[in-house]
Amino acid sequence: MASNRKVALAREVGKLVAQRAKEQGVKQVVFDRGGYAYHGRVAALAEGAREVGLDF
Question: pTM score, two decimals?
Answer without folding.
Answer: 0.84
